[in-house]
Specification:
- With 362 residues, the chain is α/β, with parallel strands linked by helices.
- The chain has helices spanning 12-23, 62-72, 86-91, 93-113, 150-169, 191-203, 224-234, 253-263, 309-315, 324-340, 352-358, and strands spanning 3-7, 27-32, 52-56, 76-79, 121-127, 173-178, 181-182, 210-212, 218-219, 222-223, 243-245, 251-252, 268-271, 278-281, 287-291.
- Strand 5, helix 5 and strand 6 (173-178) form a beta-alpha-beta unit.
- Helix 1 crosses helix 7 (224-234), helix 6 (191-203) packs across helix 10 (324-340) and helix 8 crosses helix 10.
- The longest helix is centred in the N-terminal third of the chain and has 21 residues, at 93-113.
- The relative contact order is 0.12.
- The structure holds NADP nicotinamide-adenine-dinucleotide phosphate and ligand F7E.
- Residues 84, 86-87, 127-129, 179-180, 189-192, 194, 212-214, 217, 219, 253, 295, 297, 300-302 line the site of ligand F7E.
- NADP nicotinamide-adenine-dinucleotide phosphate is lined by residues 7-8, 10-14, 31, 33, 35, 58-60, 80-84, 99, 125, 127, 178, 180-181, 187.
Length: 362
């Protein structure tokens, strides 16, 4: 039985990866942080599994990382923990650098200092944000980086320090350069989830309007459940290498809105431009989407489009397993079900016990 350690197990990707590794028969250890709210929404359904173990550790605290690595002595580490919100990185740039840059170094050093450098394989959660102000479209493993936010700059350090440890110490450590991947478990402040939740609430008369930032921004959006399979595949190869993971398809925030609202029975038309643009319900003429400059970023990455040729060829991975239309449907269906049991004035989270009971949230 192999032993895996997942940092950031409470996140979107961490929770899907933990499920996948448990299915594969792994002993799975995850790191958590102390929080004033005890309930861990995304992993509640696997807590108590005999091969699932949790440990307190923080990527900002070397001693806690050393302690968990020396106790668990993992065969594989998936370093998913991060301050992962690009806009927040402009407000908390130092914290972002500490966790997303130096945090990666802390994990690598813990493995080396615990004498595991020849036995423990490490996956680093890298990102398409490294391409930032893009220098080539679509982007592949050879496209130059041009990070364009404090988040991306921190993640770029993470990418290079992983490469350095691979070359300097012969460690099996690699980065997956993952393009945006979403799901029904996506954090509610990322644009896709913000849209599907709002579409569900508007359709059920529980919200009037949705405010968004740059509607023209382009992303290559995939399904998180498909992407965690790649993380595992990357660590099963004979040689450690970095991979771009993407669908190879690009859509705008505007298109995402159209599809999400169509799924809940609302057809949208657009009027106006830039900050004056509005999404209007064709049936009623009501303005449902407006632009708010609050959601503009000091520098925004607007043209991400990945080329997954290497992952398809070398990992045998299918980038088109879940289509864009299927992804939007998975998310809107899940949010329609959640919002349906949301009582007036209560957040979705408050009703979690009820959703679990009814089998709405798995
Ligand atoms: P997420 O949902 O935001 O999860 C982040 C995880 O990191 C959470 O478990 C969080 O714990 C943990 N964390 C944050 N700060 C920490 C700290 N100081 N010490 C220990 N743990 C900490 O992110 P995700 O979407 O699953 O993404 C996983 C990883 O992939 C991240 O590194 C992200 O930057 C990267 N990535 C994501 C995407 C994407 O589209 N999803 C694309 C490329 C790369 P709490 O629950 O306690 O907050
Ligand atoms: O923004 C635009 C926004 O916050 C996508 C993280 O997982 O993927 C994610 O980062 C685009 C941007 O994701 C709103 O300006 C418009 O251009 O959903 P997002 P992100 O910044 O791409 C990468 C690969 C990661 O590595 C990150 O960890 O949508 N946008 N209006 C908006 N974005 C948000 N959040 N909210 C809006 O209202």
């Amino acid at each position: 039985m192999k032993t895996a350690l997942i940092t950031g197990v409470t996140g979107q990707d961490g929770s899907f990866l933990a499920e996948l590794l448990l299915e594969k028969g792994y002993d799975v250890h995850g790191t958590i942080r102390r929080s004033s709210v005890d309930y861990r929404e995304r992993i509640a359904h696997i807590e108590g599994h005999p091969r699932f173990h949790l440990h307190y550790a923080d990527l900002g605290d070397s001693m806690s990382i050393m302690q968990v690595v020396s106790q668990v002595r993992p065969d594989e580490i998936y370093n998913l923990a991060a301050q992962s919100h690009v806009q927040v990185s402009f407000d908390s740039p130092e914290f972002t650098a500490d966790i997303d840059a130096t945090g990666v170094l802390r994990v690598l050093e813990a493995v080396r200092l615990c004498g595991l450098k020849d036995t423990c394989r490490i996956y680093q959660a890298s990102t398409s944000e490294l391409y930032g102000k893009v220098e080539e479209v679509p982007q592949n493993e050879n496209t130059p980086f041009h990070p364009y936010s404090p988040y991306a700059v921190a993640k770029q350090y993470g990418f290079w320090i992983v490469k350095e440890y691979r070359e300097a110490y012969g460690m099996y450590c690699c980065s997956g350069i993952l393009f945006n991947h979403e799901s029904e478990r996506r954090g509610e402040t990322f644009v896709t989830r913000k849209i599907t939740l709002a579409a569900a609430r508007i359709a059920q008369g529980k919200q009037d309007k949705l405010y968004l930032g740059n509607l023209s921004s382009l992303r290559d959006w995939g399904y998180a459940k498909d992407y965690v399979e790649c993380m595992w595949l990357i660590l099963q190869q004979p040689v450690a290498e970095d991979y771009v993971i993407a669908t190879g398809e690009q859509h705008s925030v505007r298109e995402f809105c159209e599809l999400a609202f169509r799924n809940v029975g609302i057809e949208l038309r657009w009027e106006g431009e830039e900050a004056e643009e509005k999404g209007i319900d064709v049936a009623t003429g009501k303005v449902l989407i407006e632009v708010s400059p609050d959601f503009y970023r000091p520098t925004d990455v607007v043209n991400l489009w990945g080329d997954p040729t290497k992952a398809r060829a070398k990992l045998g991975w299918n980038p088109q397993k879940t289509s864009f239309a299927e992804l939007v449907k998975i998310m809107t269906d899940a949010d329609m079900a959640k919002v349906a049991v949301e009582r007036a004035g209560e957040s979705v989270r408050t009703n979690l016990a009820e959703y679990l009971e009814k089998g709405i949230v798995k």
